[in-house]
Fold this protein.
Amino acid sequence: MLRLRSWFSSRIFNVNVYSTPRRQQSRPPFGVTCVNFDAAVRGRSAESRDVKISFPVQKTSFPPQPSVKTSFNDKDRTISATFSPQPWDFDHTGAVPIWKVVCYTNMQWADMHRHWFTPPQDEPPFVDLFFGRSLSIEFTRSFHDEIVPGCSLPYTLSISKIGKTSMVFKLKILDANGKEVIAEDYRHCQSVSSKTHRSQPWAAWVSQRYPDLCAAPPVPIVEPYGHITAEPTFTYTVKVAPSDMDLYRHAPFYQYVRYCCDCAFHGAEQGAYSIITGDAARYRVKRVETLHQGQARAGDVLTVESWEDPEHPEVIRFQIKRGVDNITQCLLQFFTASSKM
């Protein structure tokens, strides 16, 4: 039995990988370790970041089956699935809130491991631990036109770049005909050691299996804002509810997007912004960026500070804090009457 600990999109997994024949591996339980990611991750280079985290918090188990039905294309090494919002996902404007889109199109560890990261026989797992560091997703106007009750939109996930200690995944959402890309998402993940809590390289067989991805050019990733001297345009306070928790008892990354959306909506109602006013749900989202710096749990009181970009007022930046600790930074850009596609 091998031990593998991995985390994608703010989730840590401690996975039992069985060496028995495939027919004997019918739903073996996964041991799941939740990690408290309290230390902020700083630095500009994905390769030079020095990561420190504390563990563990809780263990549980679940069957290692994919979160959604997926298929795999061997030729271009992409995982495909379908996004089909349910009637209860739509809000009063007839749209699906953007944080739900981010949530529902997030493929989990079980989806990816069997397609990409199953180690060769007698080889170690590809990594000890890894976590979702950031995401950047951009939508076209047609994306919002495609989201209607009963729609079914295909999406694909691929690996864009493998660095020494980091990896970038690319997700594309297509129109109902599967021809036009209507949203594109880059998610940056980082590898760390469970012993030293610092960055560590992937297993050697990863570069042997994917030499082209290791040699691929760098992909732009979300960078920290730096210090913002201006006073926040609007500040919103939220207490993390028990219902916000995932299986591992911390708030998953899409909840932070929701907190920022709620902040923008309350601010718009109170006239805090110059362009985004009134019912902010009427404005469709063009771009979302998040950079994860810490973790929040049920009962934590978070302060969501927002700033309207003075040069681009359709852009609102957010910093989520627990006391003085930075938890997540986020950016929302909205379509306006003058916005380009």
Observations:
- Residues 25 and 173 are 32 Å apart (CA to CA).
- Residues 234-334 form a domain with the Thiol Ester Dehydrase; Chain A fold (CATH 3.10.129.10).
